[in-house]
Amino acid sequence: MNHSQVAVRYAKSIFLLAEEKNIVDEVRNDIQLIESSFSAFPELKESIYNPVLNPSVKAAILTDIFKDKLNEYSYKFLMLILKNKREASFLDIFRNFDDIYRKSKNIQKSTITSVNKLDKEIVKEIVETLEKSFNTNIEVEEKTNPDLIGGLIIQIEDKEYDYSILGKLHKIDLEMRNVSINI
What we know:
14% strand, elongated, alpha+beta, four-stranded mixed β-sheet, Peroxidase, domain 1
């Protein structure tokens, strides 16, 4: 079985269990904590992914870090993945869980990129407008890119709306390249 199928099956399993126990949001928070820990401490991720490291050592590391911070079911799920030697699929499982979660809650990911960090009220207005336009809940990530010169770029799932000055300059450049001058 390939890794993506494994990740989807594990993600569905923990989601269905969490749904049954009415702890979906709590499990999602736990998964986000684990993901952020892996990102913040690359040596943790490297240790857990290391095929040479004894599984009991990996279990001890994860227990020390997460046992008192996670819901009982999240912790047991973490240990089950480790016991079944599927730790190389951790991040894929978490990503698939998040996809299932967002689909169940009618949430779409959105990224807003601007020159500078936007005021919270402006972000709130943008999110409210997007939620009305797309008839969905929006989960927004903010990014900055000084190359935009001004304006912003909004991405929702696979759509991109470029309202930046840089984007407008690119359009003008393309139009100018396609102009033929007849004398």
